[in-house]
């Protein structure tokens, strides 16, 4: 056992085993002996040739910028529990998330499909929005700092890996950050801003789509030279995400996509082109006909009240995309028609059930993005589907005839579905 593995920080955080190393330090699996829970502990490594004044600046910035994200309460940002100064250097105690990062996934699986990258980008935009509202700039957004814990996307190392961008450190010749993902203006020596975080997000999404970052070259200097002198390449695998990625990779910060415009373009890419307004529901059409006929029969002296009441008793009929037979009265128990033979069936149980369903492929093919009212159901027979249910307590879901467990109110569930085939 090494000396570090025997170390207990602040008399409560015991180092258990090393998880990994990076340019800025070592991450340890730890145990909080006071609260009896597993934690992640990052040991920050300072350049050995820093002056004492530079070390003081580093410590102050570390403490200040670690406290700020600790106040953010969003699932898209790793939670910071504590900061400890031990053995002359800072240690950060954080939420332990045992999940691969985006860099590992790209290395293992290659480029990701656009619909998955869109989901990752949307959650990272939420994380940046929360941080930027609090005055925090990440400064080192890159795939290795993005954890993928199932449906949850978590941004780590907030304000730390590149927090020491002070004049003294820059003059010392230490390039802080990742050249392949740093914004051009920051690489040129300007101060990092929320717009530079958005550029890094664009480079991260580009890497997820193409398998490598847009300006990566054989060494740091070649990468920085390409960043300064070459135009951003157009992603080849982005499909509908191309306007989002190219807009974020605009080198001029004033012309770069703002957060709001990036969200808008990403939402439009995820939902696909619209053919126009959705047609009125059958119920609204019936009401319009009732009003027209009521006025007509009234002018003819016919009893309009009896006619209108009789028409209102008529069922508006099922939606063209709903399973045949409509929804049963007990929506929480009985399966709707078609649930046993369809790839996916979703029905609103107790209230509005928002769903997003797409067919995986080289482009984002959205087949449903709507909110079902109580009792409404939709069935899908495509052989491959990705689906998101935004409130697991309000929706019943059947996959290949099997009803999936419900969840908590407001809990989002994602499903990757393949049509069952008979065993022959």
From TrEMBL:
Pfam families registered for this protein in UniProt: Pkinase
Superkingdom of this protein's organism: Bacteria
Transmembrane feature ranges: 286-309
Listed SMART domains: S_TKc
Annotated Polar residues bias: 415-424
Assigned EC number: 2.7.11.1
Basic and acidic residues: bias regions: 401-414
Record region (Disordered): 315-335, 401-424
SUPFAM superfamilies: Protein kinase-like (PK-like) (SSF56112)
Entries under PROSITE patterns matching the protein: PROTEIN_KINASE_ATP, PROTEIN_KINASE_DOM, PROTEIN_KINASE_ST
Domain Protein kinase: 13-270
Residue sites binding ATP per the record: 42
Record's keyword terms, sorted: ATP-binding, Kinase, Membrane, Nucleotide-binding, Transferase, Transmembrane, Transmembrane helix
Top-level EC class as recorded in UniProt: transferase
Record family assignment: Belongs to the protein kinase superfamily. NEK Ser/Thr protein kinase family. NIMA subfamily.
The protein's name: non-specific serine/threonine protein kinase
Organism: Actinomadura rugatobispora
